[in-house]
Amino acid sequence: MAQGTEQMLVGAGRRDEALVSGMPWRSRGHGLLAAVAVAFTLAQLLLVRPSMGLGWDEVVYVSQVAGDAPAAFFSAPRARGVPLLVWPIASWSSSTTLLRVYLAVLSGLALYLALRAWRHLFPARVLAGAGAFFATLWVTLFYGPQAMPNLWVAFGALLCVGCFLRARADRLDEWALRGVLAGAVLMAWMRPTDAVWVTLPLLVLAAVARHWRLGAALAAGLVAGGVQWVIEAYVSYGGLRERLNEASRIQGDLGWNLAVDDQLRSLAGTILCRPCDVATPHPAVSAWWFVLPPLAAYALAVAVRAGRTTRTLVPLACATTAAFPYLFLIGYAAPRFLLPAYALLAIPVADALWNLVTAPNGRWRPAAATVVGLGLAGHLTAQYVVLDRTVERTTASRLAWARSAAELHTLGVRPPCLLTGHEAIPVAYYAGCGSGAMHGHNVTTTRAELLRTARRLPVGTLTVPGRKPPRHARDWELHRLDGLDVRIAPAPVTGGPA
Question: Which residues lie closer than 8 Å to 206 by C-beta, 6 or more apart?
Answer without folding.
Answer: 164, 212, 214, 215, 218
